[in-house]
Amino acid sequence: MNESGSRARYETRLARVLDHIYDHLDEPLDIDHLAEIACLSPYHWHRIYQAMYGETVATTVRRLRLHHAAGYLANGSMSIAEIAERSGYSSLQSFSRTFRAVFGVPPAQYRKRGTHSRFRPALPGDDQMTMREVVIRSVEPFTLLSVDHVGPYMQIGKAFDALFGWLARHNLLEAEMRMIGIYFDDPGVIDENALRSKAGVLLPQRVLAAVTVSAPVSMVSVRGGEYAVLRHTGPYSDMRAAYEWLYGTWLVQSGREAADAPVFEEYLNSPKDTAPGDLMTEICLPLR
């Protein structure tokens, strides 16, 4: 078997592991069982995983569980003790200590005063969002390589992992590529398990022109025109509050109307090597 074929075989096996992790984050994850899913030796598979994904499987599980925990804290009323249990921690103290180490504040403080609180209705003395923080940008049409995702938007990372595995197998990992997510549905109206989105990358045109797509990857075109762009700095769990402010405050006060096209997000850095508080995302709302 040639080198690319051998890598593809490992990518396929480890992709099954990632799918299982994403689908069972609220449950115990046994390392030996993950090895069985990968059809690899329990003595060696985690080293292969780290070599191919740049982090240990334990780091992946912790990162994804804390990402979900932050979402529960920012967007719901679930008790912190239950969130800790869902995140795989045997004690509230252990969960609080780990959460603080990653997010910079303990869970209770994050729920009350995380960056998502900036999008709440203004109170005297609060550092609230202002109309000046949105810029109108003219965007040229572009085409992405993408993988479809159906389910909670907080789990679109599953589609990005599948996309990057495909790119690696086809020697298309380019340092200058841009990561973009397209979101088609309103989570306030559509059941979260039916939400449609696409995980995409924008490659240089010279590279894209030579690509032959194959499942699960397809090409998708994004409309050009004017977009309202809100740059969000902070955890992805705060994005719902950012959207509520962008639509409920900025748009209704701007005198503009949203175009009949989906919103997209561009991710300016990666959660694999960036602290949650330093993640930068541009939310791009199409305008008429």
From TrEMBL:
Gene3D superfamilies: Homeodomain-like, Regulatory factor, effector binding domain. InterPro entries: AraC_E-bd (IPR010499), GyrI-like (IPR029442), Homeodomain-like_sf (IPR009057), HTH_AraC (IPR018060), HTH_AraC-typ_CS (IPR018062), Reg_factor_effector_dom_sf (IPR011256), SmbC-like (IPR050908), Tscrpt_reg_AraC-type_HTH (IPR020449). Keywords: DNA-binding, Transcription, Transcription regulation. Residues 15-113 form the HTH araC/xylS-type domain. It comes from the Bacteria. SUPFAM superfamilies: Homeodomain-like, Probable bacterial effector-binding domain. The keyword Transcription regulation applies. PANTHER family: TRANSCRIPTIONAL REGULATOR YGIV-RELATED (PTHR40055). This is DNA gyrase inhibitor. It comes from Paraburkholderia metrosideri. The gene is sbmC_1.
